[in-house]
Prior knowledge:
This protein is an alpha/beta fold. It has helices at 92-97, 100-103, 113-120, 151-166, 188-198, 223-233, 248-257, 289-295, 302-305, 308-314; strands at residues 32-33, 49-54, 64-69, 79-86, 125-129, 176-185, 203-209, 238-243, 266-270. It has ten helices and nine strands. A nine-stranded mixed β-sheet has the order 1-2-3-5-4-6-7-8-9, with helices on both faces. Residues 274-298 have low confidence and may be disordered.
Amino acid sequence: xxxxxxxxxxxxxxxxxxxxxxxxxxxxxxxxxxxxxxxxxxxxxxxxxxxxxxxxxxxxxxxxxxxxxxxxxxxxxxxxxxxxxxxxxxxxxxxxxxxxxxxxxxxxxxxxxxxxxxxxxxxxxxxxxxxxxxxxxxxxxxxxxxxxxxxxxxxxxxxxxxxxxxxxxxxxxxxxxxxxxxxxxxxxxxxxxxxxxxxxxxxxxxxxxxxxxxxxxxxxxxxxxxxxxxxxxxxxxxxxxxxxxxxxxxxxxxxxxxxxxxxxxxxxxxxxxxxxxxxxxxxxxxxxxxxxxxxxxxxxxxxxxxxxxxxxxxxxxxx
Length: 319
C-alpha cells in the first residue's frame, strides 16, 4: 500500500534477530556498541567489552545504557557490582539529542564514563537510565521511577532480568547485585538523596558531582540536613561531593556539620580556579569555546571528568 502524495514514507521498522526489542528503542539508539567483532557485529563502534541499550519498561528508563568493561568477569548466576549513574538537566546538544548514547560518547563535555571504568581496571557494570529534561527540579515527572522511594531497587530488578535474557554470557540467568554505587550530576543529586535513603540494596558509596543544590526555586529542600540524615541511615556508606561555585555554599556548610565520627566517610571538595584540562586562553574558533559557553567559570561538568575514574579505581567495594 503506497503513501499519500506529498507525505514522506514511514521509516522502516528496525529489526535484528539478536535483539527482538530493537523496534522499542528510540530510532537514534543502537542495540549495542562494541569494538569490531566479525562474529558479533555492531553497527556502532564503542569501547570494550560491550554496551547494551535496553528499552526497560519503567518510567524514565528507555533507553538504559548497560556497559560491561574490558576486565569484566561474566559469571552466570554470579554476583555483580553496579554503578548506577543519573545525569542532570539536559543542556546544549544533549537537550536536542536526548539519548544516553550521546551523553557518555565523549562528545558532550568530554564525558567518557565507560573509558574511565576501563582505565580503572574494575569489573563493575555501569548503568545509565535516560531521564527527563530536568531531573531533580519541581518537575518530578522528569525523574521517572526514581522519584519514588525504593524506585532504584525496582529498576535494578528489571535491569537484572534484561541482562539475564539478552546478554549471551549469562545464558538466561540474571546476575545478583552485590554492591551498588549511586552517582549523579547536577539535578540528579535529588535522585541520589531519595534513593540513598530508601533503597534496600547495599549502597556502599554515593558520588555527587556538583549536585547539592538547595534552596533555589527549582530545588526546594534543605540539602545539608538531607545528606546528614542519609549518613545517619547508612552508617557504612562512603560519600563524595565535588562542588563548584554553584553549590560551594552547601558543600562548605555540609563539611562543617559532618559529625567527627563520620568524618572519615565524607570527602568534600570545592573546585575553583583555572581548569587543569583547558587552555588558559581560548582562541577564536577553538573547539574549547563550545565547552566554555555553557559551563562558564565554574566547570560544572569537570567535577565528573576529573574525578570519576579515580573514584571507580579507589572504591574498595568494587572488585
